[in-house]
Amino acid sequence: MHINLRGGFRFRAQTEFWPPGGGSRLLQGHFCSWRPHTHHFAYNAQVDRLDAIRLLQALVAAGADSRTPMASAWVDKIAARDMWLHGTQLASAIAYAEAEGWLADNPTRKGCISLTRAGEAVAKAKLP
Prior knowledge:
With about 130 residues, the protein is α+β, with helices and mostly antiparallel strands. It folds into 2 domains: about 1-40, no CATH class; about 45-125, Arc Repressor Mutant, subunit A (Orthogonal Bundle), CATH 1.10.10. It is built from 4 helices and 6 strands. The protein has helices spanning about 45-60, 70-85, 85-100, 115-125, and strands at about 1-5, 10, 30-35, 70, 105, 110-115. The strands form 2 sheets. It has a 3-stranded antiparallel beta sheet, with no helix packed on it.
């Protein structure tokens, strides 16, 4: 293995280490290159949609329903414990669910969020 000065690793083909005919025929004469992540993350609505649905399912599994407001701290706890969603990922999932009408801010209780009937139905529906 050689370390590339540009930041990645370069693995030599097995033919450079073994005599001819030795090692994997798949790797003979080929390189495998690995480079650190060079792509930039962009907004992905499909990921937010799936995260929002998984969040609704986790909330319903933990006992949430459309009749009882949920404390935002409890929603954060369920998301972190069951889905490992934190920070901007959680905020994006909640924003997507609110935009779809699955979650709503509770106007009567500050710091609470409510699951709507539509959100409850989505959580209980089977995904394709």
